[in-house]
Design the sequence.
């Protein structure tokens, strides 16, 4: 099948790689313009662009798809379908209408739950038992289109945004190839009940409020791992907490109740967190034993209250 692929990050790159492997003719790849990254802030191609170039596929990186010239470039391909995954640009109706089979979106949630930009993190923060992937027929609304295929995936107690991302990327790649092989598929309208929105993650959300229950803070750490990292403050310095588990204990929220080589137990509003991996500003992620060697803490010390 002759298609256009639109996507930018690693989640999309895996889908593109799988589509290519399945033998589809990817005539054009749309991806975001190169962005500065790294210490030197040199321009870096997206993960999707790297896959496309490795396979000799033409890449188009418009800043917008709203102008006539960009739309003409897409139309000239004569694609039967467009596959979209975490592209990052709005597709106007004129573009949605170009392919004969429309535009298919790979969305990492069980729609209509968690429409929007950050479905993986929001599912973790909410304590959902499961998530999944939907292959959706795109329309003008934000993730409102009918669903062609869906598959659920259990969220494990140890899942972080990183591990869940990888599982859903693999599932999305497999599911979109299955959808392409079976087009046209019946489209199931999304129900009106159960709609939630996964708003974009803001760095300010990463601050840890020790007055919250330990089970919520455990989800907080996992949802913000790897970005932007759950942040606490100790003696006025930022400390990122990467790994912890809720335990039965009590004390003044933010106070250190116990310390050993495996963990630092910190009191929460309900229960406590046994923190096993930390990172001081400018430092590396360290297991507790290594962290304590350079940053001695004592029972009774207290993390700063949330301002």
Sequence:
């Amino acid at each position: 099948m002759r298609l256009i692929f639109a996507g930018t990050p690693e989640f999309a790159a895996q889908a593109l790689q799988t589509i290519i492997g399945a033998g589809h003719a990817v005539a054009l790849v749309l991806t975001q313009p190169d962005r500065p990254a790294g210490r030197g802030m040199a321009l870096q191609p997206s993960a999707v662009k790297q896959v496309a170039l490795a396979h000799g596929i033409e890449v188009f990186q418009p800043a917008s798809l709203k102008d006539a010239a960009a739309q003409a470039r897409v139309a000239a391909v004569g694609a039967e379908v467009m596959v979209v995954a975490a592209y990052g640009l709005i597709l106007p109706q004129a573009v949605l209408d170009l392919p004969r089979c429309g535009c298919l979106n790979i969305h990492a949630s069980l729609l209509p739950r968690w429409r929007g930009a950050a479905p993986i993190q929001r599912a973790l923060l909410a304590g959902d038992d499961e998530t999944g992937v939907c292959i959706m027929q795109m329309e003008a609304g934000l993730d409102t289109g009918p669903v062609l295929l869906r598959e659920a995936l259990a969220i494990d107690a140890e899942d972080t945004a990183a591990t869940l991302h990888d599982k859903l990327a693999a599932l999305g790649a497999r599911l979109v190839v299955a959808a392409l092989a079976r087009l046209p598929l019946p489209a199931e309208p999304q129900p009106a009940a159960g709609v939630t929105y996964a708003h974009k993650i803001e760095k300010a959300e990463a601050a840890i409020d020790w007055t919250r229950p330990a089970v919520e803070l455990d989800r907080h750490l996992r949802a913000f791992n790897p970005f932007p990292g759950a942040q606490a403050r100790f003696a006025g310095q930022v400390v990122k907490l990467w790994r912890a588990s809720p335990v039965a204990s009590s004390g003044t929220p933010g106070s250190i109740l116990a310390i050993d080589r495996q963990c630092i137990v910190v009191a929460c509003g309900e229960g406590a967190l046994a923190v096993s991996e930390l990172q001081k500003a400018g430092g590396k992620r360290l297991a507790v034993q290594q962290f304590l060697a350079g940053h001695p803490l004592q029972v009774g010390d207290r993390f700063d209250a949330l301002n």
About this structure: Residues 203-294 form a domain with the Methionyl-tRNA Fmet Formyltransferase; Chain A, domain 2 fold (CATH 3.10.25.10). The chain has two domains: 2-198, 203-294.
